Each structure stands twice: as C-alpha cells, then as structure tokens.
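From the pipeline queue, job 12 of 40. The input is one protein chain; the requested action is below.

Action: predict structure.
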Amino acid sequence: MERNELTKDQAKQVMDSFIEKGQNQANAWEGDRKEQMKKLGEELHLATKDDISALQERIQALESKLGK
C-alpha cells in the first residue's frame, strides 16, 4: 500500500463518520427549524393543536348542556 492510501476498513470508517456527522447536523437543523416555526406561530398568535383541542372540548361540553 502506498502512502496516503486508505485500506477498505479505514475508508469505511471515514465514510461512516461522515454519514454520522451529517445525520447529527441534519437533526440539529431540524430541531432549529421546528423551534423557529414555533416562535413564528407564537408571534403571529396562531392556534396550536392543543388550543384547538381545548376549544373542541369546550364546544362539546356546551353542546351537551344545550341538549345537542
């Protein structure tokens, strides 16, 4: 083997390392994106799934009181 050449195992380890680092970075970016979207929703005063669920429960309770 000449200088500056990798064995098959070394090349696989390097590629696995690159793939793992890429996946870690993608996960970090995904987390950042989700946090930015959450902040934007709050700034725009958008209803969340929890807000909508709570309203649906209140509507159902009111409807049952009215006999619907």
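Job complete. The chain has a mean pLDDT of 92.
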